[in-house]
Sequence to fold (317 residues):
Amino acid sequence: MENSTVSFYFNLTMFMNIGHYRYPAFVFCLLLYSFIVSANLTMIIIILREKTLHEPMYIFIAFLSVNALYGSTGFFPRFLMDLLTDTHLISRPACFTQIFIIYTYASYELTILCIMAYDRYVAVCHPLHYHRKMNSKTVYTLTFFAWVCPACNLTISLNMIVKLPLCGNNIQRVYCASWNIVKLSCVTNAVNSIVALLGAIAIAFVPFSCILYTYLRIVIACWKSSEVRGKVLQSCLPHVISFVIYSITSFSDTALSRQNLEEINPFAAIILSLEFVIIPPVLNPLVYGLKLPEIRKQIFKTLCLKPHTKRTSVEHC
Fold:
C-alpha cells in the first residue's frame, strides 16, 4: 500500500486549464445563475399563488424548481469564486458538503421525475380514480420518500468515502466529485465498491425503470385511443423532455468520471462535467412554462397585467 497522506484541502486542478477565459466565463456563468434563480423562483411563486395550479402535477413541477435552486446554489457561488481566484483549494468539509448537495440534487431530480411519471400514468390510464389515488396523503408520502431516500443513501456512501485513506489531494474537476476522491484512495476495498454499486442501482436504475415502464403504458393507452392522444401528448411532453435532458446530461457526467481527463480536451471536459448542474435548471422552467397552457397563461398574466389594467388592455396584451 502506498503511503497515505492526510490533507485538510483538496486541489481542483481543472481550473488551471481555463486561463484568461476565466473572466468571460465568470460573466456568462453569473448570468446563467441569475436566470436559474429568477426563472425557477417565478415558477414557484406562480404555482403557489394561483389556486387553480394546486394540483399534484404542478406541485411536482414546483418541487423541480425548488431542487434546481438547491442544486445551483450548492454549486454556483463556490464555482464563481474559483473562477476569479488563482488558487483552487477547497477544505475537506466543504468538499464533502458540496458532494452531498450536488449528488442529492441529481438524485432528487430523478426521483421527482419518477413521481411525475407515475402521476401522468394514473391520470392517463386510470382517470376515473385519479383524485382518489393522487390525494394529498399520497402526494406527501411520495414527496417524503423522494427527498429522504436519496439523502439517506448518499449519507451512507459518503460516510464510507470519508474514511478512505488517500494518496493525494488533486481532483481533476471544477467541483468535488465522489468518484474522483475514490480514485485517490490508497487501497481497493471490495466492500466499498459493492455498496457503491448497490447504492447506484437503488437510486438510479430503479427510478429509471419506473419512468420507462409508466411512459410505455401511457404510449400504449394513447395508441389504443386516438381521442385523448392530443391532450395526453400536451401534458406528458414536457415531462418526457425533462427526463431526456436529465438522462443525457447525467450520462455525460457519469461517463466523464470514468475517463482519463488528461486525454480529453480540457474545455470539452469542463462543459461535459457542468451539463447536469446547469442545463436542467435552465431548461425546465422554459419547457414547463412554454408547453403547459395553464402555467403559460399565468406567466402571461404576470408579465402583461398590472393591478389597474382594464379588460381591454388585457386582451391587447
